[in-house]
């Protein structure tokens, strides 16, 4: 076999193994060293290529695809700094447990560390932010090396997908000639005898372990369930049934997906971020058992309140991590979450005492009633935007929400509903980078996708819009433009008047109509709420990118939030005097 056929046999086998393992989407960025992989990926009949020029955006786009598809997505770039631009999305994928197969092309060994162009040290370059790193062997066509290429690929997919899901990195040293023989690719793809099927299983508890936990939890008088980011849809039914059996309220983070759907809402508490700011409520509720599923919720008041509790605190984690930022866990339980809930329900008797649950439900309802007063706000307002979205989001839609204030306002104002609105965010590392691209990745797969994003976050990933212009995704983007970082006005830095604007507020004065024009998006800057409803609703019947800008003011935004929180406190006090104690 000549060098070209050897290259073709080895790379075609690897690429085919991706498809055999249901990796049908690969985000590719242009480059020369990656040519053999790029061409053979493009040529494979079961693989779809998504071209994305800027590797930082490309990797976030792949992250969005993987989130929406709930399975690994691969990405490919050339050697050099291209690979470093993948890093932020890899970090986000690692912490938010999203499976990615990162393929980087590299110079062969004789060209490393000798001043060759576009050559950097790519060995283990993502450190411990990937679950597995492999420096691939140079292409060879012996049977054992074809099996090696396929096996590494199958292991990479299984490792990425196995809980906790996350990114894996395969670095490919490639020597010239870099052009494979595409006419021969099909022949090499057919040689599937050298394959291995990997069947990762979920973590489960033994009968004895379950019995012990059921006994402890079943004795609790005042229990609580907390749900953060949950990826398994079956959890909606499973955890609400567990809550109902136990008579425990379920504090549901927006990313738990428990705030929207067809499941039972009788135990779902969605206003805790607001009422756990209130001293009266904080003092009134002291659980003796807490069960937590998924990542830690967004809410800071919840975290602060938890720190004051002395409860048996079970963290159930099918990914066997240690997600306990409050440092309070008394039990780490490594079991697939849905199965844990179902197994537990079978072992428990229904708790007939609903008193504790009803106290939570009552506070929640009083809080929600008071929060609804935001409906009277006439000016454009960041909180009211999410209140409006409650009403305006269509059935079976997808809401991607940016970090900083958008995710927090969503937490406060996006109440439970049965419209089946799926909520997405990048909460692994909470970056304001890559959000446009991640949302575009989601909108490639999901219909009726809306992104709500702050102006700085939007600016940070404007490059990502090119994918939308070229690929034609339908995405409605709501840019909350408060001309800078609104979140900092809520923090104590805000009192450093002299330096605040230059260091934290960072106003930019950008006119986003130009970016809309650059990327072929429709654009509207909203003047009032009636106009917002009209433009937002109409956006679903316009194809492509739609940018709707909502101008707000950072200073008045803080005041309005604070006024509302104190109004809610007074309302809760009036409504509940004596009742929740
Ligand atoms: C990549 C990255 N850089 C910096 C930060 C720190 N940071 C958190 S929020 C924020 C401001 C975000 O502003 P914007 O997107 O306009 O949202 P707003 O605060 O106005 O709601 C910054 C810079 C971050 N989280 N991620
Ligand atoms: Mg802002």
TrEMBL record:
Pathway: Quinol/quinone metabolism; 1,4-dihydroxy-2-naphthoate biosynthesis; 1,4-dihydroxy-2-naphthoate from chorismate: step 2/7; Quinol/quinone metabolism; menaquinone biosynthesis. Its EC number is 2.2.1.9. It catalyses: isochorismate + 2-oxoglutarate + H(+) = 5-enolpyruvoyl-6-hydroxy-2-succinyl-cyclohex-3-ene-1-carboxylate + CO2. It holds the Pfam family TPP_enzyme_C. Residues 12-125 form the Thiamine pyrophosphate enzyme N-terminal TPP-binding domain. Gene3D superfamilies: 3.40.50.970, TPP-binding domain. Keywords: Magnesium, Manganese, Menaquinone biosynthesis, Metal-binding, Thiamine pyrophosphate, Transferase. GO terms for molecular function: 2-succinyl-5-enolpyruvyl-6-hydroxy-3-cyclohexene-1-carboxylic-acid synthase activity. Residues 220-401 form the Menaquinone biosynthesis protein MenD middle domain. Residues 436-550 form the Thiamine pyrophosphate enzyme TPP-binding domain. It comes from the Bacteria. InterPro entries: DHS-like_NAD/FAD-binding_dom, MenaQ_synth_MenD, MenD_middle, THDP-binding, Thiamin_PyroP_enz_TPP-bd_dom, TPP_enzyme_TPP-bd. The keyword Manganese applies. Its cofactor is Mg(2+); Mn(2+); thiamine diphosphate. Binds 1 thiamine pyrophosphate per subunit. Catalyzes the thiamine diphosphate-dependent decarboxylation of 2-oxoglutarate and the subsequent addition of the resulting succinic semialdehyde-thiamine pyrophosphate anion to isochorismate to yield 2-succinyl-5-enolpyruvyl-6-hydroxy-3-cyclohexene-1-carboxylate (SEPHCHC). HAMAP family: MenD. Homodimer. Belongs to the TPP enzyme family. MenD subfamily. NCBIfam families: menD (TIGR00173). This is 2-succinyl-5-enolpyruvyl-6-hydroxy-3-cyclohexene-1-carboxylate synthase. The gene is menD.
